[in-house]
Amino acid sequence: MTDSAVQVAHVGLGAIGREVVRLVLRRADLRLVAACDISPELVGTTIGSALGESTDGADVTIVTSLAEVPATDDLVVTHTTSSSLARCLPELLAAVEAGAHVVSSCEELSYPWVQAPEEAARLDAAAKEAGVSVVGTGVNPGFAMDYLPVVLSGATKQVDSVKVHRVQDAGERRKPLQAKVGAGITADEFDRRVSDGGMGHVGLTESAQAVAAALGWDASDTTETIQPVIAATATASAFGTIEPGRIAGIDQVAVVRVDGVERVRLHLQMAVGIGPSQDDIWLTGDPDLHLTVPGGLHGDLVTAAALVNTIGSIRHAEPGLRVMSELRPPRPAPTRG
Predict the structure, then answer these.
(1) 45 CB neighbour count, 10 Å cutoff
(2) What pTM value is reported for the model?
(3) Left if phi > 0, otherwise alpha if psi is -120 to 50, otherwise beta: which for 260?
(4) Among 148, 307, 323, 335, which is least packed by CB within 10 angstroms?
(5) Residues 128 and 174 in one domain
(6) 83-118 pLDDT per residue, tens
(7) What distance in Å separates the CA atoms of residue 313 and residue 329, rounded to the nearest whole number?
(8) Residues 126-136: pLDDT tens digits?
(9) How many domains does the chain have?
(10) Same domain as 154, residue 249
(11) Is residue 106 part of a domain?
């Protein structure tokens, strides 16, 4: 660790949060100064005991909130608590009002200007007042289906449309992800959850609108659909065997149209046994481009990397609520030898 190491406080020690902290502890240019979580089992223990690690910096004691963290200059908060901007807005505002830049995995924060304009405006104003910057990122939204297509567009003279197809075999992912896509439930239960708004990947609409906005298209005409992926054969999952006819996962599409013309189409298939995982990006324009990532971008690993690698970018961004396309590229740094 260098004397100029960036001070980092982390909020939220779920599966993704723990991976973020592990990476922060490994980085030579970062120093973990605080860790926050509301779990009674964690509060008062050290981050080292929570992670089962004894690396440098692992003696930080876990507290319930940033209010218990001494004020410090040039602090960056990494935040992984909720997909809902309304739910985590008080945590984000608390970080901003403490004078910290924020990098959050909140999916709805990645491009909140259309779906949550009031929350976005409030957070933007608070960040500008404090002179800090805030961004939502991760693998998706934040990189695979929005930031990466925008970066690829830099190699074209003109882009007429963007299409992204992301396939993720949920059987290779952790149990909560399989639960999120409905692995093993009935078709009737799937329909009920869709009607209740409790089914599907959060952030696909935000990704589509982020792409459209970055390429200069009006993002207001956005539609999103979700269909089930039905198991055709008996398929092993974290919940046991998914019998034929039951749900294996989701097939979700977000589309942005401008004056009736389709400009952005994001297609996400996330289901147990759907493999092979792969990410494809097509840009139609001058010239046409096609990028394939064989094996796909791993959700948990890339989300943690995206958050930590964006710490340097957010510290040099304009104050306010930012989106990933406005930042310099996230990048890794040397780890401790």
Answers:
(1) 14
(2) 0.94
(3) left
(4) 335
(5) no
(6) 999 999 999 999 999 999 999 999 999 999 999 999
(7) 7
(8) 999 999 999 99
(9) 2
(10) yes
(11) yes
**Is residue 72 a part of any domain in this protein?**
yes
The C-alpha atoms of residue 164 and residue 279 are separated, in whole angstroms, by: 7
Phi and psi at residue 193, to the nearest 5°: -65, -35
- Residue of 122, 165, 106 whose CA lies nearest to 307: 106
> By the 8 A CB rule, do 233 and 131 touch?
no
pLDDT at residue 26, as a whole number: 94
* Residue 336 in domain: no
331 part of a folded domain: no
Mean pLDDT of the chain: 95
Tell me the pLDDT tens digit for each residue of 137-146: 999 999 999 9
Q: How many CB atoms sit inside 10 A of residue 24's CB? A: 25
Question: Span 177-184, mean pLDDT?
Answer: 92
The whole domain housing 53 covers 6-137+301-326
At residue 25, the 3 state secondary structure works out as: helix
Same-domain status, 65 and 121? yes
Gap between the Cα atoms of 215 and 219, Å rounded: 10
Q: Rounded to whole angstroms, how far apart are CA atoms 2 and 28?
A: 7
